[in-house]
Amino acid sequence: MADSTDDNKTGELDLLRVEIDDIDKQLHSLINRRATCAQRVAETKLREYIDENAGGDLSKVMFYRPEREAQVLKKVMARNEGPLTDQTVAHLFREVMSACLALEKPMEVAYLGPEGTFTQAAAIKHFGHAVVSLPQTSIGNVFAQVESGQCNYGVVPVENSTEGMVSHTLDNFIDSPLKICGEVELRIQLHLLANADAVSSGIKSICAHQHALAQARNWLDNNWPDVDRIAVSSNAEAARMAGEDSSVAAVAGDIAAEQYGLMKLAESIEDLANNTTRFLIIGRESVAASGEDKTSLVVSTHNKPGSLFKLLEPFNREDVGLTRIDTRPSRTQTWAYVFFMEFEGHQSDAVVRRIMDTLEEQSMMLKVLGSYPKAVL
Description:
By secondary structure, the protein is of the alpha/beta class. The chain has four domains: 4-101, Up-down Bundle (Chorismate Mutase Domain, subunit A), CATH 1.20.59.10; 107-188 and 276-283, D-Maltodextrin-Binding Protein, domain 2 (3-Layer(aba) Sandwich); 195-251 and 259-266, D-Maltodextrin-Binding Protein, domain 2 (3-Layer(aba) Sandwich); 293-373, ACT domain (Alpha-Beta Plaits), CATH 3.30.70. The chain is built from twelve helices and 15 strands. It has helices at 4-53, 66-79, 86-104, 118-127, 139-147, 167-175, 210-215, 217-223, 235-244, 254-260, 307-318, 350-362; strands at 108-112, 132-136, 153-160, 164-165, 179-187, 191-194, 205-208, 228-231, 248-252, 263-266, 276-283, 293-301, 322-329, 337-344, 363-373. Strands 1, 2, 3, 4, 5 and 11 form a six-stranded mixed beta sheet that branches. A five-stranded mixed beta sheet has the order 8-7-9-6-10. α1 crosses α3 and α11 (307-318) runs antiparallel to α12. The N and C termini lie far apart (55 Å).
């Protein structure tokens, strides 16, 4: 004889499943409705551009608006009532927005490759999986692809919380006409990876980019002290090597493990739990204000006492917070330097304009690299 309690439980589960199916139907209908609206947005943008420019180059039509997407994601997080976290809900909307944008015009984004790097993970985090991500062999090539119009945007690393600034990225900005259009912060979790045939006793070398080896140095010293460490061009290259050779282990992230089908010998081996890398989105167009922005610029001043103080004083006077300042050697003068400065606010803000007017009076060269929304996710 059946237990009536079990019957009641089964009946309750069936009702909940019916409710979930009904909600799924509603979600599906709303997502398709949003996608249809996105298509209409694309049609409207094209029509308005053609009317204003008598045809013109349709490749210049701006389908992707960084400031608009940042505003939408902030609203999503602000109105979230749970039980899903703000970040989780924002990631879900990020993917819906990515798929809808692809209906307007699939975007091609260059990133520092090869496939499986943290830079690719940053590109996906910012643009969603519907973007066409194209690996490049160097940071310079990422800039070149965007400058030439071969790619709509690029993603390049700019700083790590433990290793500092990425000098190659800063140097490329000096001569490039490109603008910073956004930023991405990515929590860096490193794993020790090997292929399915590997055994711990058979590992003869551990490979990774030099920064990854440095970020996991203490863990490796304590757990694999007698195994050779080899610095290679990227963590993804190390993962590729591990996939082909069971005597090689790689220090890399989840995306590299998935890309090359590797197993984890150990997880989260980075020495500092808050290890984070920041990436910049680069493009050809300036970005309008989103309401929560940063501005980056490069400035060169006269090599005499008090020069740096004069650069910093306007920020103190206007009560604007500097979020980053770094130096690079000047390419035109011996023992001269250029300063990369990052601060809160948009270049269209009156207070920021006053600061830049003062800096321009005091400097030999001032170049605004861009104003862009603060990282949302």
